[in-house]
Amino acid sequence: MNIKHVFFDLDHTLWDFDRNSELTFNQIFKEQNIPLNIKDFLEVYMPINLNYWRLYREDKISKPDLRYSRLKDSFDALKYTVSDSLIKKISEDYITYLPNHNHLFDGTIEVLEYLKEKYTLHIITNGFEEVQNLKIQQSGIAKYFKEIITSESVGVKKPNPKVFEFALKKANAIPQDSIMIGDSYEADIKGALNFGMIAIYFTQNKNKESGVLTINTLLELKKYL
Q1: For residue 88, which of 109, 99, 72, 76 has the smallest C-alpha distance?
Q2: CB-CB contact of 103 with 16 (8 Å)
């Protein structure tokens, strides 16, 4: 592979979203005296959140709808009554507190140190711009990346080809010398492949997608790059 540019997704790829999210909700529930067990809450919240992100990615809901409805549906599913004002407060605090917790996946720093000597590194993320930039800065990984592209800065979200077109143009790259690494098969992998890039699917699922290069740990990237 004649690769010159490596593009990473952020959440669930480098930045340990699930762990940091749990710490954030723990903090909020203590502050607001919400007696729910955090594990029980997250078991309900995580699939609801993923579904709302899918709708947001497909432009079927707005950012405020995503932030409010994922919480409302989760509390409703647990039959825990919360006022609209408290849901809005939790929603705002979640976005504020989330970048303060910055656990990375095992091997993140080691693999970025390894790759930076051989390639130009970038990030393409569908997350909210104000939060993603804070995560990157406060987790100490900003120094590894030349360009950081958020879907909000483009106006569309992965897997829309306009995101990849914008990112590659900003990075002064072409599809043939670029690779995308991410955890979302739909947004990262199919999006990149359809644009003519190479892609590596990072997943904890041991069942590999047919015909797609798959890794289960970040350090496995050393075998391919």
Answers
A1: 72
A2: yes
The DSSP call for residue 208 is P
Long-range CB contacts for residues 88-92, cutoff 8 Å, separation at least 24: 89/32, 90/28, 90/32, 91/67
pTM of model > 0.85: yes
122: Cβ–Cβ under 8 A, 6 or more apart, which residues?
Answer: 5, 6, 7, 8, 145, 146, 147, 148, 149, 167, 171
Which secondary structure element, helix H or strand E, spans residue 19, and what is its range?
Answer: helix 17-31
How far CA 123 is from CA of 17, 79, 159, 224, in Å, comes to 16, 39, 14, 19
Each residue of 138-180: pLDDT tens digit? 999 999 999 999 998 999 999 999 999 999 999 999 999 999 9
Q: Which residue from 47, 82, 89 is spatially nearest to 67, judged by alpha carbons?
A: 89
